Amino acid sequence: MTLLCARLSRWALWEDTNGQASLTLHTSENTSAVSHPSVQNDLARSIKPGWRRRLDLFGRAAAETLTQMLTLADNPHIVFCSRHGNINRTVKLLHQVVTNEALSPADFSMSVHNAFVGIASINWSITQSHTAIAAGNDSLIAGLTETICQMMATQSPVILCYVDLPLPDVYANTFAEPQTGVAFAMRVEPDKAITPEPPGIGKALTFSSCGADQAQAAATSPYDQIKNLTAFFVSPSARPLTLGSSTTAWTVSRHD
Known about the structure:
By secondary structure, this protein is of the alpha+beta class. It has one domain (4-202, 220-237): Peroxisomal Thiolase, Chain A, domain 1 (3-Layer(aba) Sandwich), CATH 3.40.47. The chain is built from 8 helices and 10 strands. It has helices at residues 49-52, 57-67, 87-98, 105-110, 115-123, 139-154, 212-217, 222-234; strands at 4-17, 20-27, 31-36, 77-81, 130-133, 158-164, 181-190, 203-210, 241-244, 249-254. The radius of gyration is 18 Å and the shape is globular.
């Protein structure tokens, strides 16, 4: 079994349940939690106003977590993933088609799956490649797989950013699981054994792939996977965590 080593330097989780939003930020130095009484207006302040006006809650929540992953003069690779994408804009466009209304150019351009990460790259002058992934219920695992592989291939930092919001009412009966708005980002870097770093920067992790049977047994929704992953990050226990999808699974362990 091949063990892939990485260092988790920071992560951030934004959640919105029934209008009650919170942001949890963890770096190598501390963990902090901040409540946002005004969800959309308080997010993405680090985005320049001209670009920020184009972002709805989907983009602003993603930006709020992504900005926490960046450092000065940073130029990381970014892997962006979402199960449903900015579906509220898509449904709005479909309604305009059905009712013979003129399509909103802003909504059309921002409904593209990689629209947010494109704006983020311009805003923060990131010139490294970015990847946009949509893989249904497997979206987070697909994004995690791409993140780990890019980090190993480039031997440079890679940021994983995931976002999904509750589905519009027209899809209310389509999915049984609770609908919670979530944006999550994590920054992984080559392990210090490969690229020397200051001591104590982040958590040293190993990732090992599992077979299809174990993957399907461990498969859960992206939201549950994110909650399990962040709980693992802060837990004092050394017990490994397995995250699965329909075809792939990763077992995450500490190796500090």
